[in-house]
Design a protein that fits this description.
This protein is an alpha+beta fold. The chain contains two helices and five strands. A hairpin with a 4-residue loop joins strand 2 and strand 3. Helix 1 packs across helix 2. The longest helix has 20 residues. The N terminus is likely disordered.
Length: about 140
């Protein structure tokens, strides 16, 4: 019996990267928020009972956090102060290495986090984070 290797470009590994075993073939979207709100949301998600958080990118140069969410989230994302970038079938895949810029790094890397953050749970955490930040700023 003969077997053949797949030439599917979605499973091709880029030299020098180690894909997360659970995220290797999963497409995703990216919700980007200001770093202050994003860091607060990560804390809220990690404290929550049963709440899970997927990989998170920190872009120090732009002062933003990017939450990996399931593909298709961008179609209905409407949270003020944030953006959700869809993959448009371009085959965005998660790898353990961050982009080449010096100021970008994984806050929660693939493999150490769940595959993606549930958008409903993220929306709730971002809302709570915004309220906490507003309350803190009004106390000054």
């Amino acid at each position: 019996m003969e077997t053949s290797q797949s030439n599917d470009p979605r499973t091709t590994e880029t030299p020098g990267t180690v894909p997360s075993p659970t995220a290797r073939d999963e497409a995703c979207d990216l919700v980007t928020v200001p770093a202050r709100q994003g860091l607060e949301a990560v804390d809220i998600l990690r404290r929550g009972a049963g709440e899970t958080v997927g990989p998170v990118l920190l872009d120090g140069g732009c002062g933003t956090l990017g939450f990996v969410v399931p593909a298709g989230t961008a179609a209905c994302w409407d949270v003020p102060g944030s953006t959700c970038t869809e993959t448009n079938g371009r085959g965005l895949r998660l790898h353990l290495e961050a982009p080449a810029e010096d100021s970008t790094d994984w806050l929660l890397p693939p493999g150490e986090a769940d595959l993606a953050t549930d958008p409903v749970v993220l929306r709730r955490a971002l809302g709570e984070a915004a309220r906490l930040i507003e309350a803190a700023d009004n106390c000054r």
